[in-house]
Structure formats: C-alpha cells, structure tokens
Amino acid sequence: MSRIMCKLEEDVARARLAQSAVAYAFGISQRELEAPTRRSRETALARQAAMYLAHVAFELPLSRVALAFGRDRSTAAHACHRIEDRRDDRAFDDYMDALEAALRTAPRLSGLQRLAGLERFGAVERLS
Asked: CA geometry: angle at 12 spanning 7 and 17, to 5°?
C-alpha cells in the first residue's frame, strides 16, 4: 500500500476518533456527524468541533482534515474559524480544552502494536 494511502487511513482514523469524542461530549450520534448533509444546528456545531479538534489536537493541515471528513478544504477552514470564534465563551473554551487534551493523550495504534509485539509483522511501518 502506498505511503499516501497509509496517511489517509491514519487521518480518517483520527477524524473518527475526534468524531467519537465530540459525539459523546455533545450527546449526538456518530451517524449524525458523519451524515453528508448539514442536519441540525447542533449537529453542524458538533461536526465543526470535530474538524477543529482533528486540526488542533492531531496537527493535521486543513486539506487533510477536509479529506478525512469527506469535505472541502474551505469547509474545514470555516469550521475552524467558527469554533475559534465560539472559544470566547469561557465555558465552551474549557469544554474544547478538555476534549483537545483527551485527544492529544490518546495512544497511537503503532505504540499498542509495539507493546503487543506486532512490529515484527511489519504493520507498524505501514501505519506510521
């Protein structure tokens, strides 16, 4: 598998992790967040928060965030701007800080594979 495809798989995994954390924290189903249409205002905000967290917590460029979420780069940029604007609210800022910290401390799959002794099978190089 090409290195580009491996990076895309890793980006999608990170996007799903951000979506899962946001779905749980916002009380919205993951299916709603993954829907191709905008849905409700609450769902749109949660999706924007997930994109923002993928960008900030995982340090993904906006183009890769957009690709991982199946959206356009301008949509990812808009999402990040919307969330940054909302962070003026102290309670929302604290909430986003907690989500970001949780995602930043999530262990990487390659670390788990090393602990399990799976690196000898070559899977770590493919995912890293």
From this structure: 125
